[in-house]
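Narrative progress, year one. The postdoctoral researcher (J.K.) led the effort to move from monomer predictions toward full complexes, under supervision of the PI. The following entry was the first complex the group processed end to end, covering 562 residues in total.
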Amino acid sequence: MKEIRILAPAGMLGYGIPEKSFNAGMAMKPHAIVIDAGSTDAGPHKLGAGVGIVSKIAAKKDFDMMLTAGLENHIPVIVGSAGGSGGQPHIKWTMDVVRELAAERGWKLRVAVINGTADKEWLKDRLRKGLVTPMTGVPELTIEDIDQATEIVAQMGHEPYLEALEKGVDLIIAGRSYDPAMTVAACVHNGNTDLGLAYHMGKIIECGCLCTIPGGPDAIMGILREDSFIIQSLNPERRCTPLSVAAHTLYEKEHPYHLAGPGGVLDLEKCTFEQLENNAVCVRGSKFVPDKVYRVKLEGAKLVGYRSIFIGALRDPLAVAAVDEIIGAGKYMAHNIMKQLGLTDNQVFMDFKVYGRNGVMGDREPIREVKSHELCIVSEFVAPTQEEAAAICAKARAGMMHYHYNGRKATAGNLALPFAPSDFSVGPTYQFNVYHLVAVDDPIAFFTTTYQTIGEEK
Amino acid sequence: MTRLNDITRVIRSKNSGPFLLTFDVIFNDAESYQKAKASGVLTPEKFANLFRISKDKIVTFVWFEVANAFKATIIRPRDSGSYGERDTYGAQQAAPLINLEFPF
């Protein structure tokens, strides 16, 4: 069986593609260029509000490099989790970037767009039939959750990509995807159907050079063979070793060698890693164990309110010692204005993060003694409207600034405010409220693919 | 006495999806890994105490020999990036592990 080479130019679309490594990869004549554009790392706001993670300028630059090389070598460019969250606005944003670029470059592109948004009525029906299960640590899904989510995306496996590749396209722009799906589809399309090896290879290369020492955003090559695959670093300064590759499967995963995805579990317990020449590692023994029922993961976020914050610091040692009293004054004033606004405790959330004490870890901070000579308080207020959040924030700030704690000598004010204006209205606040598995009848039919030709050849 | 910091090259935390937080420890070499594992210092009880969580919040607690690594995954105290968040990516939560002491 021939070997199949897949080039992953970076761990994330828009983070920048290092030219030297990318060219070294292209010189190896890959069968496809795959790139992941998504993540839930940045929180629920991206999916909830329908906005991206990277700038248009950055995405366009990466597309330019990949599509120039793809068209020249007649290989597909495959983009997963378009626009960050892979929802409708994210796909549209990505397609706008591609259209603009195609027009500028005079490219004619055959594009497949794969949509993975779940229909809410369909999902309610699935929920009633008991076909929805929560992910670890997640409450059961409710009809209310489905209604409240701004958009619910489903993480696709390789199957919809494979169908698109078989139609013959230059570019695939897909919604929310399991990270290795693009790689697996390209491997199966080119004749290797060992899903264990392909999914494992895809899992490693989708992060770019996270599996090298030192790790970082760089291009990497995955080479699938009949009974193994090879991970090859394209940058001589980044070493690819059996340990660095083995350790990669830890990253961001719940378990080091059982990795659940659409349609099955990747079992890496029996994997072996062997050093090869040319800064490469050979991996054997990755197994894909199909599930009896094909399930996909859903992600959704709901609006929980609007947020205002202010930052204030304490330096006076008497104020540092009285920090809890000062915060108490802020809470008291916040509750006063809440009452005037007709808001209850259930409608308003407030949090005072005290940096220098336990700002990062909160209640889980094991060090209880405060040794810092200064403290920074980041105060957060979330209310049903932005106006209400801003009003509560302002009252709490004034309360904390001027509260007369016992023994106070700095009678002009308790807070050093670094910014004018001191308060920031930071807009809508979201919360992940859908993170569940749903059984689908057909892993392709659930996702809808449209084919279009963009631009005209110049 | 040896501290975890002395025998490892990675001690990190990171989200594993919005509802889980995972901790990775990668030891310097197979010897350090084996000694640390055999010492019995790092147990679910110890881990739960260190992070002030109850033991039932730990969903994964695994030694991973092929990478000279240890992994623990816990249910996130709250879902990532919403109100009350303190570490959206979960990238700064591993600090209590650094000074963990081993009797060798």
